[in-house]
């Protein structure tokens, strides 16, 4: 949650398949040397039959394991030395991920065309879904923040002052007025101290504080003279 309040930029290591350009048209080997896979007869899939018992059988269609669904194969001596006839290579790259202030859980960051590549197919996207870790003090609801504060009965009746360390490290001095008696579980709010509102510089939600009042124990005055 702290990073969603402050914003951050980080590098993400990504590993994906890219097409090999060692041979023209991503053939994966020399021109004219490919042949239909003998296992699937060039269709890329195989039909298999499974016995289920009691005389029942099930017919299934699976990707051909011999050609990996390509339907064709290339002799080993004629394969591309870079991709070994697979037509794709595994490439590692760094993606710069920018977490903007005020982003919400479930919000997506999309890197178009940075996904796996295959010959003749448009590259996919890399999509990052934002998910924040729970905070020990603050809970987020939309653009607002909620927290609890324990105070004594005397502070609830007479007013008090305390410090809140915010998500960006700032210290907020909160003062309750003596004529504003705080009841158990009452809530007070501080405007613009909630989560930043995305695309609205300087704007923020509300920081709501729920007061938990600690009452004295029963018979906390042991001597009868203390009651006089």
Automatic annotation (TrEMBL):
InterPro entries documented for this protein: DnaJ_C (IPR002939), DNJA1/2-like (IPR044713), HSP40/DnaJ_pept-bd (IPR008971), HSP_DnaJ_Cys-rich_dom (IPR001305), HSP_DnaJ_Cys-rich_dom_sf (IPR036410)
Coiled coil location: none
Zn finger (CR-type) location: 1-92
Superkingdom: Eukaryota
Positions of transmembrane segments: none
Signal peptide residue numbers: none
Domain CR-type stretches: 1-92
GO biological process: protein folding
The entry's keywords: Metal-binding, Repeat, Zinc, Zinc-finger
GO molecular function: Hsp70 protein binding; unfolded protein binding; zinc ion binding
PANTHER family linked to this entry: DNAJ-LIKE-2, ISOFORM A-RELATED
Record protein name field: CR-type domain-containing protein
Origin species: Onchocerca flexuosa
